[in-house]
Amino acid sequence: MTRPFAPPKRLPPDLLRVQAYWEGLLRGSAKVPFWDDLDLTALPDLAGRLFLVGVFSKPERFRLDLVGEDLITAFGQEAAGLFTDEIAHVPPFALLGSQCSATIEAAAPTWFEDNATVATGYRRLLLPLWGDGRISMLLGAVDQGPA
């Protein structure tokens, strides 16, 4: 069975760096790093294309807690503080809620790609982070432009 939003075998270089950083946060035999080990200053040149999603349960909802400047520009407004169900399905956040749910369920990285046009094409990687006894945050990264 193919997992929804499964990442490709080969990621774009910047997204590969983000995933490698995430993997470097793993402790022992853990499959998901702890969110409090995350330090976005470790990826300063990618900060504008990174975002953090807070995970809420009962009911399941996802809130953009931090959004890089490049993503705010692409979205056209400030997005931090908005829940995914409050965001229009436009780049770079189209189908983000669905991808968040898939990331939680798989407890593994997920991938979304939209190549509708060369100008607006983008790829998005979501990585789960553990805290408070569950996956409580997601690290997101976007690679924009032609694939």
Shape: globular
Output the strand order for the largest sheet. Answer: 2-1-5-4-3
Oligomer: single chain
Largest sheet: 5 strands, antiparallel
CATH superfamily of the domain at 49-141: PAS domain
- Indicate the proportion of strand residues: 25-35%
> From N to C, what is the helix and strand string?
HEEHHEEE
CATH topology of the domain at 49-141: Beta-Lactamase
Helix coverage percent: 10-25%
Would you tell me the structural class of the helices and strands? alpha+beta
Distance between the termini: 26 Å
Number of helical segments?
3
Query: What's the CATH architecture of the domain at 49-141?
Result: 2-Layer Sandwich
Low-confidence stretches: none
Structural commentary:
- The chain has 147 residues and is of the alpha+beta class.
- It has a domain at 49-141: PAS domain (Beta-Lactamase, 2-Layer Sandwich), CATH 3.30.450.20.
- 20% of the residues lie in helices and 27% in strands.
- It has three helices and five strands, in the order H-E-E-H-H-E-E-E.
- The chain has helices at residues 13-24, 69-75, 96-106, and strands spanning 50-56, 61-67, 110-114, 122-131, 134-144.
- Strands 2-1-5-4-3 form a five-stranded antiparallel β-sheet.
- Strand 3 and strand 4 form a beta hairpin.
- The longest helix is centred in the first third of the chain and has 12 residues, at 13-24.
- The mean pLDDT is 92.
